[in-house]
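Objective 1b. Sequence-to-structure analysis of Tryptophan-rich sensory protein.
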Amino acid sequence: MKNALVVYLVFIAVVVTCGALIGINNVPGDWYQSLNKPPFNPPNWIFGPVWTTLYVMIAIAGARTWLRSRMGGRMQLWGSQMLLNFLWSPMFFGMQSPAAGLIIIVPMLICIIAFIILTSRRDRLSMLLFIPYAAWVGFATLLNASILYLN
């Protein structure tokens, strides 16, 4: 039990910290402000709290998966979606490329959905933790595609 708690804490610390560092180093800035955006574009202040909450949920699902099967397919999917997640901001904001962002976010969404499907019978809580994440990334994919189209 003690070891499991350590795993949970490490996953949460690493995922939230990495997410925060990537966010701090890839601030939207003037370039993003100058883009044409769809009417459903949320205010910038919403992204920090949403992503922090999602990162905690993603980390818990990752820790649960790690504790059950470190080298299994579900852990590989979790790692793949995390890598793509951490690449998106540098591609979209850092490179100032909605096209590169879209190239990253589509496979990311596929990995998230695949994780949900593979986890549904083995770990219902991890599956449920990923559903809001899938919804948010689905919305982000639509937003990314709309920004690419409008610009």
